[in-house]
Amino acid sequence: xxxxLSRELLLRYLLGPGAPAGEVPAPGAVPPxxxxxxxxxxxxxxxxxxxTELAEVSRAHSPADTALVRRVRERLTEVLPAVPxxxxxxxxxxxxxxxxxxxxxxxxxxxxxxxVLGALVLSSAVTHGSPALxxxxxxxxxxxxxxxxxxxxxxxxxxxxxxxxxxxxxxLRRTAAVLSLVVPALAxxxxxxxxxxxxxxxxxxxxxxxxxxxxxxxxVQRAATGLGAGWAAIVVxxxxxxxxxxxxxxxxxxxxWAVAAAALGVAVVLCRDTYLHPREARARHR
Length: 286
Description:
The protein has 286 residues and is mainly alpha-helical. It contains 14 helices and no strands. The chain is elongated. The N and C termini lie close together (6 Å). Mean pLDDT is 75; it is low at 277-286.
């Protein structure tokens, strides 16, 4: 656990780098450097105790600033509508989900609809013994999710595109989140209607989880490339040469894919800290 900030450092942080040396509490001390300010601010973001201590220091040494902040808060409270307080449990669940997919409703709905429609098309291809579409089953959800969270539909696309979390890893995480919702729903719906559109999504879920789990060790790019090459060698080539749906993509292979997807999903959960910001990962282990 990271040590809390001292009262002296909090005062130096409050005064800022432009404060005269005479206002800094310790004799002979100098105003904080930019690095010290950054470190203190990063700590304050995740430490409520130090934020409370900073408020006390501000009231004692900078009453004018404290009064100004109070007046601004009161004016905003009068102007802005009241927002109901969410339950802490729901807030945590939403924050965890937001790490994997943007909380905007539009992309979620579009991704769910496109994945379900794709599952119905691929299920029809299996029924008619056509391997052309079945061999592309793992790529179909990725394309649907990529289209749904594109620059024209995702309100925070520009912000996310500039972060280290963007790219193939983010696409795989979003696809896993969407498939985790679609697969159980289609399984229940298929059991009621006597159809099995969920079967064509199980390989996609298993391979997506495999890429995330393996990517936490060797990198997402390498993991996805290796799994894609393996799928091409084991599935695409035999299906193209034989013009039939391989046995491991038929209904009889569904239990094996389901077990594999569940096991790999557990592996992703166990290595989830790999995809967090370092500060978030440290906070999780406190």
